[in-house]
Each structure stands twice: as structure tokens, then as C-alpha cells.
Specification:
The protein is an alpha+beta fold. It contains 6 helices and 14 strands. The strands form 2 sheets. Strands 1, 4, 5, 6, 7, 8, 9, 10, 11 and 12 form a 10-stranded antiparallel sheet that branches. Strands 2-3-14-13 form a 4-stranded antiparallel sheet, with no helix packed on it. The relative contact order is 0.14.
Length: 261
Amino acid sequence: MKEEKRRFSHYWKRIVKKKGFFPTLYLVIAALMLTGVLWYQNMDRLSDTQPNRDVNLQDEIRGGDFEQPSDPVTHPVENVNLPILEDSDSQIVTKFYDYQQSQEEQQQALVFYNNKYYQSQGIDIAATTSEPLQVVAALSGEVVEVKEDPILGYVVQIEHDHDVTTYYSSLTDVRVEEGQQVTQGELLAHAGTSIFGQEKGSHVHFELRKNSQAVDPEAFFDQPVTNVAVHEAEDVTDEADQDEESETETDLESGRTTTHT
């Protein structure tokens, strides 16, 4: 027995003394340790068999945090346009009545009907040729009124942002209906004729209002709709009307026009 132990010990001493034994031993130990590490990592992956439904892989790849609330979409502010196409053959035949205008300019803003003169709360644009005059939306918005009036002809009213309203009358061939969303420049109708302003022929009556108060459209054409405002002279119109005993109020045109006897 002792002889076998001596042989075994002598055998291991010979192996240990061989060149390259310890480097080989180190490599084997390192390989075993690396194998253990890789096995442990794979076990962690295999244990998580349920996918995480709360994680969007596409979002992670793009690197974006798509759960954050987005900023509200803001629409660009539009400029107030004429209610006709730019290349239309037309002219403004009636102006907006302004108390600060000269007497000559005020006369151009009066409409004669039923033996009375009415102050225009907008402008009248008449066609200069026999071609149908297309009437388009001066601003984007929602159509809130479409009706046929026995004196004013067909009427269309559109509400816009910033408490602005546009009003179109003396129309024919109306293409829109109440509740419809329209974009700026979209065809609404064609200019027609009406009993009120009959002498103007084929024309469209157009009004621009801020908080239901009529303002001079020509003062705001090609300007941002946010610039539309009621001037002091326009705001005191009601007081001036009350001071003139010869003036009466009527519902002709858009709503409030004043007569001169």
C-alpha cells in the first residue's frame, strides 16, 4: 500500500515538473469560470419567459419618450382675404359706412331702398363682366347659417377663431350647408341679385364682424385675423343713432342698418 502511494506521488511530481503544466492549468480554470458565467446569464434570460407588454420596442429603438403629452396643434393665423378670387373681374361699389368719413365717402356707403337710405354695414362687390362671380370664404371656419331671405337673397354666415364672423348675402347657387367646415378660399356660392341693392346688379354683400360688431372689411384685408378690432368710432355708432331723430333701425342687410329719411 505504501509502495502504491509512493508511486502515485512520484507520478504527480513528474507531471507538475513538466514544462507548461501550470499555464495549462490556469487556462483550464479560466475556461471553467467563463463557462459558469455564461451559463448563469443564460439562466436569467430563460427564467423571464413572459414578454413585457408595457414596453414598446419600436419606441426604445427610436429613443423617444412617446408617453409624454404632446403640445396642442396650433393652426397658423390667417390673413383676412377678399370674399372673391384674386383674378376676378369685379369692383367694390358700396363702402362701409363710417361716421368719421367725409360726406362724400359716406354717400358712397349708403344703399337706397324703398325710398330710404340705409347705412352699409359691409361692402358690396359687383361683377364687371357677364361671367359668374365666385364667392369664396374669406377665412377658414364653420358655416353657422344658410338661408334664403326674400329681400337679401341667399345668406351665408361663417364663424371663425378669435370671435370673428363673416357674412355673405345676395348669393345664388350656394354650395355649403350649416355645420360644414370650410377652408379659406373655398367656394361658397356665386354672386347674385337681391331686392335690397337691386341697382348694383350681380354682386355679393360682405361683412366682417368682431364680437358681433360690424367693422370695415377694407381696413383689415391682407392683415392677420387677430388684428380685427372694433374702433371707437364704430363702437359709438349706437349712441350717434339715438341722437338723430330722423334715423330708425331695421333688420335689412346683416342685422343692423340705419335709415336716413
